[in-house]
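Review the following:
>
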Amino acid sequence: MDLGLTGKRALVLASSRGLGLGIAKALASEGANVLLVGRSGDQLSENCQAINAEGKGKADWVWGDLAEENFVTAMVEAVKEKLGGIDVLVNNTGGPTPGTVGDMTAEKLDTFFQSMVLRVITLTNALLPQMKEQGWGRILTVASSGVFEPIPNLALSNTLRAALVGWNKTLAAEVAGFGITANMLLPGRIHTDRIDELDGANAKRQNKSVEEIRAASLKTIPAGRLGKVEEFAAAGAFLCSQPASYVTGTMLRVDGGASRSI
């Protein structure tokens, strides 16, 4: 299937590693020109070299921290300078610290709201006029399966990512007439450094080994294994594609069947 992404310009947030990098690679493999964003210049540069060596879509990078107040302004300028415009925006953010509802202080809520919700919404608003003018655009927001079934000890993530659900659904209806789609991609247990970090935190909290925590989690996944970044990224590339032009306002779970909700 031709995804119709050749020459499309994509900004992929938090793409120095993990899920963001996976999506950037998937888009570039379909011929898109991708702009990677993160806080590690060396890692981003290596990522771009690897993508460019494939000889398909082109890759460039820009330093960016979602926690910084000037993040949106910097990204808008980078899109103009390095891509010359925008067709695809992938809203991906790092996850907050693990913890219970009782651990959610006002300071923590404000800090992570800024980077996980506010920056996503304001950046999208800043780039939407370009998409509307050209009559084509894709907005993909990566969240978590916790928006369907809250994940124990991830109270901050469950709370803040759920806020994006209502926003995305509202946005999708407002921009559909301009040829723009807005969807959410929800990872289950995809094997990344983040999953290793969370398993480590749970092991410490429960006084168990990481191996015990991992084995218990695999029993809850019908597929019987952790997902691969490439599998997750392929789903993301499709939602950003031309054939997916009639798919909007949706939440796609990539979780090996782990979620039991309908």
Summary: The first helix runs from residue 18 to 29.
